[in-house]
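Section 4.2 – Deliverable D4.2 (structural model, holo form)

The reporting period included a commitment to supply a predicted holo structure for the target in complex with pyridoxal-5'-phosphate. Inputs used:
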Amino acid sequence: MFFASDNGSGVLPQVMAALSAANTGYARSYGSDPLSDEVRRLIRQQFEAPDAAVYLVATGTAANALSLAILTPPWGAVFCHRNSHLEEDECGAPGFYTGGAKLVLVEGDHAKITPATLATALRQTPSGSVHASQIAALSLTNITENGTVYRPEEVKALTGMAQAAGLACHMDGARFANALVSAGCTPAEMTWRAGIDVLSLGGTKNGCMGVEAVVIFDPARAWEFELRRKRAGHLFSKHRYLSAQMAAYLTDGLWLSAAQKANAMAARLSAGFAALPGAQLVHPTEANAVFAAWPRKGHRKALAAGASYSLWPDSQPLDGPEDDLLTARLVCSWCTTEADVDQMLAVISG
Ligand SMILES: Cc1ncc(COP(=O)(O)O)c(C=O)c1O
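Output (structure tokens):
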């Protein structure tokens, strides 16, 4: 009953096998090896973007912060959701790597920015005066931090407004595959065709050991990224081990089938909560994360039975009236089983 995070899952067997296979002989370093060529080929092919520049890093925070660094000057302002990973979970890395750009926090239910909330934020953020930060970029997280999904037409509506205001557009796709299979669209439809300039394409949460790709759809921005990645200490010398993971992940639809499995388990869990007396869903379940509330006594039972998940927020006390609802985040991964889900629901209601 492990639902604490998809980061807690193991590595997909195909990815592990690819790492092992890569571990023979010699290969050129710093991304000049054949596996790195293969990653570039796979991403360009699958995103229908023959000119895209592709770079690998080891963490999502590096992917996001370095991506933003090529989209904003140090005096820029980056619009993102109030609950975004950029704002809440990156220890100020966007400010650090951009050399000082500030985040402008945009509202929206279920961690989604809407055209109305973006319009308000743009209106309230003066630019042009020497005294103000200059508006520079928009970052959308897909799937969002509340497990919801922007569909391509929603992305397009937001990037359209951003472009009209002169902003570049980034997508934090730490769970991009989960968003893609949920929306049922192609990688191109979700990104450059919908106005995204740079994508952080996650691998780790969906079954890699530790690799994320940055996909830059305008190659004119690529060289600066390369320099920034090196300067940040994120240019891995033994690059083939990052590339082996990403190549296996993107081969034979593995990334999509892994995400499909995770999303299906979350849908099963979500349906279980919807049917559980006294429980309620807090955000719509659209991908692999479920946000549900149920009475404190059910949490005590689940935790005593060894279930692992996060109270969301984690400040909710486990001591208190039995029937108070406490909200939790439960994340499914490629290795979550139906038995895990059913046991979790049974323990809470038992
Ligand atoms: C939405 C989102 N973006 C980015 C990240 C990347 O984080 P990390 O730097 O831990 O790989 C995470 C991880 O939790 C995330 O949830």
